[in-house]
Amino acid sequence: MRQGYECEIEKVALEGExxxxxxxxxxxxxxxxxxxxxxxxxxxxxxxHSQGVPVAIMxxxxxxxxxxxxxxxxxxxxxxxxxxxxxxxxxxxxxSGSAGELFDFSNPLSEVSKxxxxxIRMTLQHGxxxxxxxxxxxxxxxxxxxxxxxxxxxxxxxxxxxxxxxVHAPDFITHLVGFALKLRNLGISDHGLIxxxxxxxxxxxxxxxxxxxxxxxxxxxxxxxxxxxxxxxxGSNVPxxxxxxxxxxxxxxxxxxxxxxxxGVLEEEYVRTALHEExxxxxxxxxxxxxxxxxxxxxxxxxEAVRSKL
Length: 310
Description:
Elements: H1 20-31, H2 35-40, E1 43-49, H3 52-65, E2 73-79, H4 97-101, H5 111-125, E3 129-136, H6 144-147, E4 152-153, E5 157-162, H7 172-185, H8 193-198, H9 210-213, H10 218-229, E6 241-242, H11 257-266, H12 269-273, H13 276-288, H14 294-303
Helix pairs in contact: 1-3, 3-5, 7-13
């Protein structure tokens, strides 16, 4: 019970291994056993993680396609999803089967990517579905650009970053990521800023826990419920825009892209006016920021070029 209301909650746990299509078919059969609960629900929250994100969205699309969703609102809490694949550095002939398939998401023309995008399009056309994409700031497997699905533009999509307070103290870089995602949620371009920050923010493959810690925080689920139930509706005729994208090879990183992206963000009219106080605070944090890792020291060096804009 919360805020004086009582509700009946029915949980449906879906687990399975294999490639995306195999998991969708297997879990769909399992879900049919609980289809009456789903049909009768006033609200449905779908929580999914990593490879489970595209699987869950395809399942929601099937529910809509077969008329099994009567709920006025549906929330999708997509945590650390491999929407654009894992970090391309990890691609190797050693990965095959379901693990190797994850790298196909980096190619928008691959069969699994096209199926994923089409499922998102169908899901958002429902009109009552709200999607929350949450990325972990130090995910060791999935870039922030991938977990927050940067190429998508739609008013029913909300983006957030998970920062583990046990590991990270609030600093310039955490606020910069939050600032960039805030712009995306307002419908303003981040000029590729999240993309340029994704690699420097990668956690350690050997000791990092960012990829899994995100689903342990109850605030993530609260945010998904708030986004689903407390946002207004624009109807079902709002089109999904998918920007052209290509995940670059690890060796193709251009050091000038980051300051150029930051410059683009700071020259946005809304940023220069409505968010002037926040940019002033960002400058103060930038001055105090003392990164310790080599990659983040490099980030600070490259952002010195736009210091006057900050």
